Amino acid sequence: MKKKRFRFQQLIMGLLLLTNLACMSDLDTDQVEDLVLHPILEASLIRLEIADIEASAGPLPIEVSDFLEYDGFQSGFVPNHLIRADIFFEFENSTAKIFQARIEFLNGNGQILDSQLFDIQSAVNTTPFITNRTITYEGEQISVITNTQIIRITASTNALPPSVIDNAKLEFKMSGKLYLEIE
């Protein structure tokens, strides 16, 4: 019994030794120099609601404008590593009015870097009209995103029919998906 136990222990020790030797290799620390990361960041950028405009709001056309000072793209990390940006726009109109909207990206001096126009149809009965668009900025166009400090939203209408929906409004949402490359 002692002999069998001794052989069994030798066999186990021998297998463990072979297993450890078989798994050993030199560690290549130079691999870290070739490492490239491609993180993707997603964020909601703007959400804006414009209450229904009443007929007594003034002479036509009526224009509503707002802006947001935005320095989210100004940090040293994002502009230095940004290779692509997908910007998603969505308008939801639950009013009986047809709108035209303009989104402008401006630099710190107020210079327009890019502008997007949207024709937004009125709601049908009680069903809101939804307009979606995605704009991709990459290559030389990426500077529009990295230099943007102000986002201006302007909506205008030439008609003021009364809405049949309670709490009717024009809602705007903007979000982004940023693709980075870090070496």
Question: How does this model look, in words?
Answer:
The chain is of the alpha+beta class and 183 residues long. The chain has one domain (34-180): Sandwich (Jelly Rolls), CATH 2.60.120. The protein has 3 helices and 8 strands; from the N terminus they run αββαββββαββ. It has helices at residues 2-22, 77-81, 142-147, and strands at 40-51, 62-69, 82-93, 99-106, 112-120, 129-138, 150-157, 169-180. The protein has a 4-stranded antiparallel sheet. A 4-stranded antiparallel sheet has the order 2-7-4-5. The radius of gyration is 30 Å and the shape is elongated.
Counted beta strands = 8
Summarize the main sheet. Answer: 4 strands, antiparallel
Label the CATH architecture.
Sandwich
Give the end-to-end Cα distance, rounded to a whole number of Å.
62 Å
Taken in chain order, the helices and strands follow as HEEHEEEEHEE
Query: Numbering strands along the chain, what is their spatial order in the largest sheet?
Result: 1-8-3-6
Question: How much beta, percentage-wise?
Answer: 35-45%
> What count of helical segments does DSSP give?
3
**What proportion of the residues is helical, as a percent range?**
10-25%
CATH topology, what is it called?
Jelly Rolls
Features:
Jelly Rolls; 4-stranded antiparallel sheet; 183 residues; elongated; 8 strands; 43% strand; alpha+beta
